[in-house]
Amino acid sequence: MTDEVKLYGVEVSPFVARVKIALNLKGINYEFIQEDLDNKSPDLLKYNPVLKKVPVLVHNGNPISESLVIIEYIDEVWKGVPIMPKDAYEKAQAQFWAKVIDDKCHPAVLKAILSHGEEQAVAEADEQLQFLENELKVKGSKFFGGDNIGLVDICAGYTIFWVGAAEEALGIELVAKDKFPKITEWSDNCINCQAVKDGLPTRDGLVAFYNRLFGKAE
Amino acid sequence: MGKGSEIKLIGTPPSPYVNRVQIVLNLKSIDYEFVEENLACKSELLLTSNPVYKKVPVLIHANNPPIPESLIIIEYLDEIYSDVHPILPSGPLARADNRFWANYMDTKFFPLFEELRKTPGKEGKKAIMKQIIEGSQLLEEAFVKFSDGKPYFGGDDVGYLDVVLGCFLGWTKFVEKHNEFKIFDEARTPKLLEWTNRIWSHEALKDVIPESETLMNFYMILMKYRP
User: CB-CB: which of B67, B99, B108 is closest to A92?
Assistant: First the structure.
């Protein structure tokens, strides 16, 4: 049976990007449906009536929502390149750090960006990123889980790339690269991976998005 | 039960997130040591075990570093003790569905209770109670779908969502009484109401969910330290 895989999302959402990267890692062919979040399609509302958000993966007509839930689903259905660690303890660790990223790091970095680099917001973002920096230092590996790309890399490995685009649009530095050498190195390692590159928006596209967001002329 | 007492659970009895883990440990007949925390004065052990969130529950299994976050702990226990009372179903789609609803409960439904506690004034509280009731109706629909005519979310016996929602029943009863409204009732959420009565007396839950007095004491600490 040929699988029918559709992904509803927007190019510039990091939550959507992570699902694209997971699909790419597994070599899954999918149809990407670009949503207009100010005018959500009937399909999106049908497939995610509870939260009405992107990303939504539809596999053979079955919808799955919430990026981390989608990624674990993808990993369970399609064998091949594993995304979650096999060892139960390492898996728990990966799930934990993915949660830290979503609960703490991502909101703090977003706030720093949206506030145009307000001092307090940047300080908070730095504090959250420090947890990740410390953990990467302790691990000392190329990717978060070791030699191969895994869940945490998919979720946040390219943070510096993403923040870099916002910095270009704002014309200021938000995350001091010299304060976060491990996170910076990690970002370089991740975006050199083809599956990641193909899942992320282009640098220009992302800068243009932030320019629009900040109301600057293109 | 050989693996038994290598498990330590750091927690506080009134925390529903801690209760969740206790329920799963009971369902799987796992022995464990309960290390009680005082949330008004957190121990070194807790602060070093969970430096990021500094919260309970935290599970320590043998010589492994600690695992925080109740849902992550549950998945971990389900994997290492997979032969006794599986909590999550085996099919990927069913697992995704279960995880989605647990996520909904933890990020959308339960935070409303905290908001209710912190909101002063009748009007403000009324607005949140309305949201809680709307949420309970979504949960009723979810229960009907998952149970498919059987007694629990998990089917014939307690499963993932029974644990994830069931752990809160002490608090829902407390909040209902304290705020004089019904979260689960016969008219709006008949199936879920039946479920609450059924699960309240289930072996694995009944000695875990705290009494009103314990919850009242905890409530007062929350009002003091997290107004």
Answer: B67
A89, B92: Cβ pair inside 8 Å?
A: no
**At CB < 8 A and 24+ separation, what contacts does A203-211 make?**
A203/A161, A203/A164, A203/A165, A205/A11, A205/A12, A206/A12, A206/A162, A206/A165, A206/A166, A207/A165, A207/A168, A207/A169, A209/A11, A209/A12, A209/A165, A210/A113, A210/A165, A210/A166, A210/A168, A210/A169, A210/A170, A211/A169
Q: Do A73 and B76 touch (CB under 8 A)?
A: no
Residues of chain A with Cβ-Cβ distance to B64 below 8 Å are 89
Which residue's entry shows tokens 């946040």? A156
B69/A104 Cβ within 8 A = no
Average pLDDT over residues A203-211: 94
The pLDDT tens digits of the residues spanning B199-226 come to 998 999 988 998 888 888 788 777 877 7
Amino acid identity at B111: P
pLDDT digits (tens, 9 = 90+) for A145-170: 888 899 999 999 989 999 999 999 99
Q: Nearest Cβ partner of B75 from A51, A95, A100?
A: A95
Q: Bin A215: left if φ > 0, else alpha if -120 < ψ < 50, else beta.
A: left
How large is the ipTM?
A: 0.77
A104/B52 Cβ within 8 A:
yes
Residues of A in contact with B87 (CB under 8 A): none
Name residues whose C-beta falls within 8 Å of residue A151's C-beta, 6 or more positions apart in sequence.
A71, A83, A84, A85, A94, A95, A98, A144, A145
In which band, very low, low, confident or very high, does the pLDDT at A64 lie, cut at 50, 70 and 90?
very high
pTM, 2 dp: 0.85
Rounded to 10°, the helix A119-139/A88-100 angle is 170
pLDDT of residue B5: 62
A129 interfacial to chain B (CB closer than 8 Å)? no
Q: Which of B69, B80, B92 sits opposite A73 (nearest CB)?
A: B92
For residue A134, give how far its alpha carbon lies from the nearest alpha carbon of chain B (Å).
Answer: 11
Average pLDDT (B175-188) is 92
The per-residue pLDDT for B45 is 85
